Amino acid sequence: MLNRLVVAAGAALLVLSAAVPAVMAAAPSRDYLATPDYIDLAAGDACAFPVRIGFIANKEYGVTFADAQGNLLRQLIAGTLVVSLTNTLNGKSITVDISGPARVTAHADGSSTFVLRGNSLPLVPGRLYTSTGTVVQEIAADGSVLSTSKATGTETDRCAALS
Asked: What does the pLDDT read at residue 57?
């Protein structure tokens, strides 16, 4: 399910609480952002057919800013992230670079805002596309996508390429 992908990609980012002034913030930390070997999406989650997202190259790191109590304020994500997208019914597969970068901002209600720049794979129910430019996504505390807006750049439909 696509929501699992959102949660997997931002699990650490979705454990959020109220922010305090930056003056009281702890020193930022830089951490490797591990991914699973792959994520399977059922038919209908992204395309009309099941899709496997395989993580080929991951050298992404997050610089995490937290308040003095350790509550997430924001995270900057950068580094190489290359994935394969595979139609598991016909075996067609493509490789895409979705290295970003991205910025995640935590909100007091547990929701978050993802700002994706450069090459990205926005998480949108019922769609599988890559984007260049800027995409802004609002994510609910439960990991569901509340909204997606495109500010600049282009989109490429990846379901069409895999069918």
From this structure: 97
